[in-house]
Amino acid sequence: MTSTVTVRVLHDPAAAREFLLRRRRLEATELPERVRAGIRSIFGADLTAGEVVDRIIADVRQEGDAALRRYTRLLDGAELDRLEVAPEEIAAATAEVPSDVLEALRFARDRIDAFHRRQLRSSWMHFDEDGALGQIIRPLERVGIYTPGGRAPYPSSLLMSAVPARVAGVEEIIVCAPPERDGRISPLILAAADIAGVDRVFKVGGAQAIAAMAYGTESVPRVDKILGPGNIFVVLAKRRVYGEVDIDQLPGPTETLLIADESADPALCAADLLAQAEHDPLASPILLTTSAQLAEAVKQELTAQLPALERAEIAGEALVNNGLIAVVPDLPTAFDLANAYAPEHLCLLLAEPWAHLDRVRHAGGVFLGESSPEVLGDYTAGPSHVMPTGQTARFSSPINVEEFLKIISVVGINREGLKRLGPAAATLARAEGLTAHARAIERRLGS
Q1: Annotated binding site: which residue ranges?
Q2: Which of 13, 48, 53, 236 is paired with 30 by a 20 to 30 Å CA distance?
Q3: Which residues are annotated as a binding site for substrate?
């Protein structure tokens, strides 16, 4: 007999809001005992995740490649002579990948490429009686993409970062990924790197990879921006090096929030929740619905579908840890809760999903209707699936072409323009107490 899935069900919108808006601080994340034991073994002390990251970054800055090799041996169990993956290794690994998977990766690449090409913009210049003003749009010179190892390789995530970078015109794209104990990177990752047009790949994982890309070592070049998801040590390392380099975001465990009415198929609702729950025990699968009957049916479907999954244990933990089915009085309440939560993925399983799109204020991505599951967005829809989590969708965006561009302002004022614009500039400079600023204008005006 199948046991009932444990997932909290709430009928009080205020209680649902309180649960959704819990604050989960990265620095306060409690590490599992297995991880803490490993830290004690390697560092000889019971360090926090932040303290571990600080030590690793300091060692990589001071020792370079030697620190990378040491931490690869201690943390990944791999002994490496060469940190960079040779071109022949990439070719051999790609040859190991089944042809249908290679075809699917190329199909996804082409979809991602086509979507992001619509976003490209050009430098511009405006001329008038005062002279010229404009912007020069330039791609970044070199970016670094982190690709995690762990429970499973994610070649799709590599495509979702590298392809927009290539579309933007980035000159050099490097990838860092942790090796297995045999010193190899997953053939899926290497095949994706090849298909995406990545220039160089390095067998380096964890916080040490972030430090290497931020500061440079003998083998790993310093980059201008670091992108990509990872575990808590990777995310904290990205936070630490921000300012030395740019970063995309601080991605946490995946989040999916479904808004559904009585027209929704409970089997599809459950399937979408489980699809995200299987990522991570800390994933957040959430359903807000106006139908108490649907809520009960989805709970029953979760119970029926979960045991058949290969990653049932992980998905079950996610449902217990962060899962929620909340019954709300109406759709405005559901959207109010969703905007407060600012989910990574917002799925509208409604009879008329397009009619409610204007209600969405905060989300990484919106998926409209039962034919647009979030899983499609993970692979072949086109937009990057690397999206903001942890309520950062209130102020940040998914990876896109803009991540890889910078703007240079152009000011070319003529003599007549100086006469017209200068006096007010000098007045404002003196109001701020910056008399040298004012005199730099006034000397030109002869005053």
Answers
A1: 146, 208, 231, 254, 276, 279, 345, 378, 432, 437
A2: 13
A3: 254, 276, 279, 345, 378, 432, 437
Sheet holding 324-327, edge to edge: 8-10, 324-327, 284-289, 255-260, 345-349, 365-368
Q: What is the pLDDT of residues 408-439, one digit of tens each?
A: 999 999 999 999 999 999 999 999 999 999 99
Phi, psi of 313 (to 5 degrees): -65, -45
pTM to 2 decimal places:
0.91
Assign residue 56 a region: left if phi > 0, alpha if psi is -120 to 50, beta otherwise?
alpha
Catalytic residues: 344-345
Q: Which domains does the chain have, with CATH numbers?
A: 8-25+252-395 (3.40.50.1980), 31-249+396-412 (3.40.50.1980), 414-445 (no CATH)
Of residues 233, 197, 192, 283, the one with CA closest to residue 7: 283
Give Dmax over CA atoms of the chain in angstroms.
93
Map tokens 């599992």 to a residue.
Answer: 32
> How many secondary structure helices (H) and strands (E) does the chain include?
17, 14
Choose among 305, 251, 307, 318: nearest CA to 278.
318
Q: Summarize pLDDT for 120-144 with one digit per residue, the tens.
A: 999 999 999 999 999 999 999 999 9
Judge contact between 21 and 338, C-beta under 8 A: no
For the chain, the helix, strand and coil percentages under 3-state DSSP, each to the nearest 5: 50, 15, 35
Residue 350, classified by CB atoms within 10 Å of its CB into exposed (0-12), middle (13-18) or buried (19+), is: buried
Residue 45: CB partners within 8 Å, gap ≥ 6? Answer: 39
Which helix H or strand E contains 126, and what residues bound it? strand 124-128
